[in-house]
Write a structure and sequence with these properties.
The structure holds two protein chains of two kinds.
Chain A (H helix, E strand, L loop, with lengths): L7 H18 L17 H32 L2 E5 L2 E5 L6 E16 L9 E15 L3 E8 L6 E12 L2 E8 L5 H4 L21 E10 L4 E8 L17 E8 L11 E14 L10 E2 L5 E3 L11 E18 L2 E16 L2 E18 L23 E12 L15 E14 L4 E16 L2 E2 L3 E11 L1
Antiparallel strand pairs in A: 1-2, 2-3, 3-4, 3-21, 4-5, 5-6, 6-7, 7-8, 8-9, 9-10, 10-11, 11-14, 12-13, 14-15, 15-16, 16-17, 17-18, 18-19, 19-20, 19-21
Chain B lengths: L4 H18 L2 E8 L3 H19 L3 E8 L1 H9 L6 E3 L3 H9 L12 H4 L2 E10 L19 E2 L7 H17 L4 H13 L8 H10 L5 E5 H11 L4 E4 L3 E5 L3 E3 L1 H7 L2 H10 L3 H9 L3 E2 L2 H6 L8 E3 L1 H5 L2 H9 L4 H7 L2
The chains are: A mainly beta, B alpha/beta.
Chain lengths: 465, 333
């Protein structure tokens, strides 16, 4: 026998050598936990990959914009700003605007020994305004008033805008007569409107056609109304007679930026038959800017002692304004003629009134629709808004045939002359402070002759949006 | 000569009737995204046909968009006289809103589908990613372009074609099919709202490696809009897409266009209408026209939605309704 065991030691050697040989031929095993790595990308592949990523981002942005544009076609637009709050459908066919204004007044009477008047603060007007549009051409406006603790529906009407030249309005609104009456209460120059406003209707119920011609250079309006006494509002007619009112107003230089752009002038009139009763006379009294009544017709509730409207009522009012640079001027003249009766005595009485008011603005320009300061109040920027100085003069004359049958000369003045001066501070489009001094002198109206002059300091803090 | 009143009256009436007929009739066709070229040609041909038949001038206005979105627009008040959408479910939605009778699909031949199509792949010229079948779409590094099934009818056909393939591959195992489709949608970088949008993304913006497309869109891209840049790859298995059409009765009656709307859809089944469909790469129902254009369409084994999914209502509820399989898949993208 071979001492080294024959073939089996060789086989054992081979097996023992195979392990290390195989290990040498194989790649080393990756340490535990590591995955095999992908082959590295070429530069071209990396560039292509980046290019694809950029294209994807750009396309996503494009699609987002398309979707946003699609959404915008139907999305409701909600805005808030100095003109209030509004909701608007994407196509503009439906809108709702919520606006409003608050006026806190102060009235301080000087030298009121004979006719004491109470100094007072008063919430003169608290008016939320709801305006809107439905079906593109139908506008509405609802404006209640909660001033002085009362609730009154001032405006409630619908407009149909068939074209700029022809619109129809129906509801309760201001008939187209008095120039200063037609100005919004937030835009008037003084705290209270002047004497002529006593002779024109305030708000009435009716239907009116109106529009703008010649590119807005000519405004026209014509309507039929229940008919209200001078200076008054009404919600219900007390007789079958109706008033017809019309107005034509020219702004010949409205288009363009010429210096006469702010010129406007026109004429308004109303006519109708009005018949009062003992409890609803269809006649009104007249008030001073201090809101004191200085004239009223006789009325004691009896047929013998009460004056009623009894026949034709006619009003005529030429009117105009000029706003040029910092200067503003407004003037109107009103004739109010009414057939009246007391028991068996009838008369046609004609009362007249006129006023001129002027202003000068620093830091802004006046318009018929108030002042917008060039630089609103901002303490940090040291800008102060706009300041306006103002003056006015006006007169109201009662027909001398009124006395003594239809009005008591001891308590009703036959004329009033009013002048006022003042100062407005427009902090911005929404906030305004007024300070007025008003003096009204009377002819008649007292047992001793002339009624005591009224001297009153009027202030107003107004916020409107 | 005595003045004859009766003939004069009759003549006046006839002239009046003729005048009313002479007024242009308008139809609104609310359609899905890729049918623009088809209906441009159909509308011109039908207007000519209608004028010759009745003397009336006809104008067909078109609206195009994702099929689901278009159906919702009609339900929300878009006054379509006819709806030519991508799938029956979208017209069922209009029927459920009471604008179309529930039996609308029986009113025209072939379940109201005058032409068919299928889903194929559009790839870059030369097919650099070597895409041949649905399996290739789930590979890492392959970007797939397909629209959003929530808005696009074509996208729903794409999704169901992929799902049908996966069911076949994995022995009808829904879990495996879901996993397969999920992997596919992981490769989708952008979801357009409609099929035409996806074509723009792929062909014009140069994004992606493969576009899942209506066959007609793919053929249009290969032969016209993407000529020289793309090529069509037909998978061995795909779904038979049957885009349906219907008169929207409520609005057609309101507009007094019911008769012309019916005639318009019937025109799609005429030899002339079928030729137009085939020329625009839709598979015609008419056997003679189909034979004439057979070479233009790739050979694909087709399954129907009824065979694999039990119909559109079931498929919609399971896959595309809120919380359905697509929502689960896309939530995990």
């Amino acid at each position: 026998m071979n001492r080294f065991g024959g073939w089996w030691p060789c086989l054992l050697l081979l097996v023992l050598a195979a392990g290390p040989l195989q290990a040498w031929q194989e790649e080393p095993a990756a340490p535990e936990g590591e995955e095999a790595q992908e082959p590295e990308k070429t530069l071209e592949e990396k560039v292509e990959e980046l290019d694809q990523k950029i294209r994807i981002l750009e396309r996503k942005d494009e699609l987002d914009k398309e979707q946003a544009a699609e959404k915008a076609k139907t999305a409701t637009n909600v805005t808030s700003g100095r003109d209030g709050f509004s909701l608007r459908s994407a196509d503009g066919a439906y809108q709702l605007k919520i606006r409003g204004y608050v006026q806190l007044d102060g009235r301080f009477y000087q030298g009121d020994d004979e006719r004491p008047a109470t100094d007072t603060f008063i919430l003169r007007r608290v008016r939320p305004i709801f305006e809107g549009t439905v079906f593109k051409i139908f506008d509405f406006r609802i404006m209640p008033d909660f001033g002085a603790g009362t609730t009154v529906l001032q405006d409630a009407y619908i407009d149909a805008r068939f074209s700029p030249k022809l619109k129809v309005r129906a509801g309760k609104f201001k008939p187209p007569v008095g120039l200063e009456r037609l100005q919004s209460a937030t835009d008037i120059l003084f705290v209270e409107r002047g004497l002529p406003t006593n002779l024109v209707p305030n708000r009435d119920l009716g239907v009116q056609l109106f529009g703008d011609l010649a590119g807005g250079n000519v405004s026209w309006a014509a309507g039929v109304f229940n008919g209200v006494p001078d200076g008054s509002s009404g919600d219900l007619d007390n007789n079958d007679g109706k008033d017809y009112a019309a107005r034509l107003f020219f702004q010949p230089f409205l288009a363009g930026n010429g210096s006469w752009k702010g010129l406007g002038f026109g004429v308004a009139a109303s006519t109708g038959d009005q018949e009062g009763t003992l409890t609803s006379t269809s006649l009104a009294g007249y008030r001073t800017p201090g809101q004191q009544t200085f004239f009223s017709y006789r009325s004691d509730g009896t047929a013998a002692g009460t004056v009623i409207a009894d026949g034709e009522r006619f009003r005529l009012s030429p009117q105009g304004y000029l706003y040029r640079g910092p200067f503003g001027l407004l003037a109107e003249y009103v004739i109010s003629r009414q057939e009246v009766r007391r028991a068996d005595v009838s008369r046609e009485l004609e009362n007249t009134s006129w006023q001129v008011q002027a202003s000068w603005v620093f830091g802004g320009e006046p318009t018929y629709r108030a002042v917008s300061p060039k630089k609103p109040f901002d303490r940090e920027a040291k800008t102060w808004g706009a300041f306006e100085i103002k003056a006015r003069y006006g007169r109201l004359e009662v027909d001398e045939d009124t006395f003594p049958v239809f009005a008591n000369p001891v308590s009703a003045a036959e004329a009033a002359d009013e002048w006022g001066v003042g100062f407005n501070w427009y902090l911005n489009r929404n906030v305004r402070i007024y300070l007025d001094y008003e003096r009204t002198e009377f002819e008649g109206g007292a047992s001793s002759g002339d009624r005591e002059d009224e001297n009153v300091l009027l202030s107003r803090f107004q916020i409107a949006f | 000569m005595r003045f004859r009143i009766v003939p004069a009256l009759l003549l006046t009436l006839l002239l009046g009737a003729a005048a009313s007929f002479a007024a242009t009739v308008k139809l609104l066709n609310v359609s899905y995204d890729p049918t623009r070229e088809l209906y441009q040609e159909v509308n011109a041909a039908f207007a000519k046909h209608w004028k010759a038949k009745t003397g009336q001038d006809l104008e067909v206005q078109q609206s195009h968009g994702g099929s689901g979105k278009q159906a919702r627009s009609v339900v929300d008040g878009l006054e379509a006289d006819v709806a030519t959408l991508a799938l029956a479910y979208d017209i069922d939605a209009i029927a459920n809103a009471g604008l179309v009778p529930k039996n609308w699909q029986t009113r025209l031949p072939h379940n109201s589908s005058p032409y068919t199509s299928t889903i194929v792949f559009l790839v870059r010229k030369g097919n650099p990613k070597k895409i041949k079948d649905w399996d290739d779409l789930v590979k890492p590094g392959v970007q797939v372009i397909t629209p959003n099934p929530k808005t696009s009818g074509g996208a729903r056909w794409n999704y169901l074609a992929a799902w049908g393939f996966a069911l076949r591959k994995y022995g009808n195992n829904p879990a495996k099919a879901k996993e397969f489709v999920q992997r596919l949608y992981k490769n989708v970088p952008i979801l357009d709202t409609g099929a035409r949008g996806s074509t723009v993304t792929f062909v014009e913006r140069g994004i992606g490696d493969v576009l899942l497309a209506w066959e007609n869109e793919a053929l249009l891209a290969v032969r016209e809009i993407g000529k020289g840049k793309v090529q069509l790859v037909a998978p061995p298995l795909s779904i038979l897409a049957e885009p349906p059409v219907t008169v929207v009765d409520k609005y057609a009656n309101k507009h007094k266009t019911a008769a012309v709307a019916k005639a318009y859809l019937e025109f799609l089944y005429t030899p002339e209408g079928q030729e137009i469909a085939a020329r625009n790469y839709y598979r015609p129902r008419n056997q003679a026209v189909a034979a004439k254009y057979a070479q233009q369409f790739p050979q694909v084994q087709l399954f129907t939605i009824d065979q694999v999914f039990g119909g559109w209502t079931k498929a919609q509820k399971e896959h595309f309704a809120d919380g359905g399989t697509f929502d689960q898949i896309s939530g995990a993208r």
